Amino acid sequence: MNKVLVMGGSYFIGRRIVDKLYEKGYEVYVLNRGSRAIENSDIHSIICDRNDKETMNHILSTYNFDIVVDVCGLNEDQAEILCSSLDFDSVKKFVFISSSAVYDIEHLNIPFAEDDALGADSFWQEYGTDKIEAERYYTESLKNKDTELIILRPPYVYGENNYAQRESFIFDHIVKNQPILRGGTK
Predict the structure, then answer these.
(1) Chain centroid, CA 90 distance in Å
(2) Within a domain: residue 102?
(3) Do the Cβ atoms of 161 and 105 come closer than 8 Å?
(4) 53: Cβ–Cβ under 8 A, 6 or more apart, which residues?
(5) Residue span of the structural domain in which 53 resides
(6) In sequence order, what DSSP letters do the residues of 135-161 get, joined into one string?
(7) What is the mean pLDDT of the chain?
C-alpha cells in the first residue's frame, strides 16, 4: 500500500484529494496545523505548522512516504521547509498544486499552454509570484532526484467545502433566484 502525505488536506481541495486517495486504498497522512479535525479515523493526522522548519524536520524525519501532495504551499520558504523535511529516497511522486495565477496573462492569449511564460500580473500580484518561486524551488530541488514532479496549475476551483465566500455567495444567490449586484460598466 502506498503511503501518501497530503499537505493541507483538511478542507476544500485538499479534503477531496484525501477522500479520493483513501477510497483508492492509499494509506493517507494529512499534515496541517490541527485547526480542523480529520473526520475519518483511518486517515493519519500529523499536526504541525508547515512554517516551523525545526518542528517539520523533527516530525517528518520519522516517516517515509511514496507520494507527497502539496495542496497549500504558498511560497519558496514553505517549499524549502517541506523539501528539507522529507526523505526523498522513498518519495516517488511529488504533486504541487500551484495556480494559473503564475502565467504572465498580460502577454499571453487564452487558453494558456503549460510551457507559456510565467510572470507577475496586476491582478494576482504577490500570490502569483510566490507560487512561481515555489514551483521553481521544487523544480530545482527535485531535478536530480528519482522523484517525479507534477505541477498542476488550476484556475478557479469551485465546489463542495469551498471556503471562499465570493463563490458561495454567487452560487447561493443563483440557486435562490436572488439578485447579484455588480458594479457599473463604462
Answers:
(1) 21
(2) yes
(3) no
(4) 81, 84, 85
(5) 3-175
(6) HHHHHHHHTTSS-EEEEE-------TT
(7) 86
Give the pLDDT band (50/70/90) at residue 185.
low
E-strand stretches of the chain: 3-7, 27-32, 44-47, 67-70, 93-97, 148-152
Distance CA 24, CA 26 (A): 6
Q: 123-180 pLDDT, tens per residue?
A: 768 888 899 899 999 999 999 999 999 999 887 665 566 555 656 666 777 888 887 7
Residue 185 lies in a domain: no
Which pairs from 101-107 meet CB under 8 Å and 24+ separation?
Answer: 101/127, 101/128, 101/131, 102/128, 102/131, 102/132, 102/135, 102/153, 103/128, 103/153
Count: domains in the chain: 1
Report yes or no on 184 lying in a domain. Answer: no
Nearest CA-CA partner of 2 in 57, 69, 56: 69
Establish if 14 belongs to a structural domain: yes
Cell 502577454 belongs to which residue?
107
DSSP-derived letter for residue 61 is T
CATH assignment at residue 32: 3.40.50.720
Quote the CA–CA distance of 91 and 45 in Å, as a whole number: 19
Calculate mean pLDDT across residues 33-48: 86
Cell 508547515 belongs to which residue? 50
